[in-house]
Amino acid sequence: MWVWLAISFSALLHITAAYNGPKWQYYLFKPFTMVLLMVVAWQSGLDGFYHQAIFVGLILSVVGDILLMLPKDRFVQGLVSFLLAHIAYSLAFWSQFEGNIIWWLPALLFAGGIIVFLLFLPSLGSLILPVALYIAVIVQMAWAAGEFWLTVGSTASVLAFAGALVFMLSDTVLAMNRFRGPLTSATAVVMTSYYLAQALFVASLLA
Predict the structure, then answer these.
(1) For a surface tag, which of 40, 61, 70, 201 has the fewest beta carbons within 10 Å of its beta carbon?
(2) What is the pLDDT of residues 157-189, one digit of tens each?
């Protein structure tokens, strides 16, 4: 319980600093929140492939966080880091998949991904291919988590799928803020949903 309160408080310190400063608080607590989640994941044990892949995803996410918050824009590098994180998460979820693929789920998810891509397309410029690839990978990650949930139905699978959907929301708002114009509440929405998604992935290790 206490560690989750610490994680929530750390996330809150980062989000409030994004609006009101100071800068040191903003830079410190963004990765520190993820480090706390990594500690929880580590303490859950890293014996199985699922746990190991989730932990690798958390590490790659920290790298992406650092790249995206640097004063000089490292958007593409951050995108690559999070793309690799989503691949790690996907491998974790597919490793738990049992039974036959339920095809309506990817159809629904990829249709949503195409709509989001078309929404941002006029503003992407030279980033068309990287963004298209990123959308495809995160949708595939959500598909993997969804198949895990639909075929296994465990508490861990519910947490994993919920985390994947929240992650998609976070990235959609982030892209909207970058490509469709600044949103006043973007940082609060993006970071709250981002930390929630990562926390749900870690919670799936404990279920």
Answers:
(1) 70
(2) 999 999 999 999 999 999 998 888 777 888 899
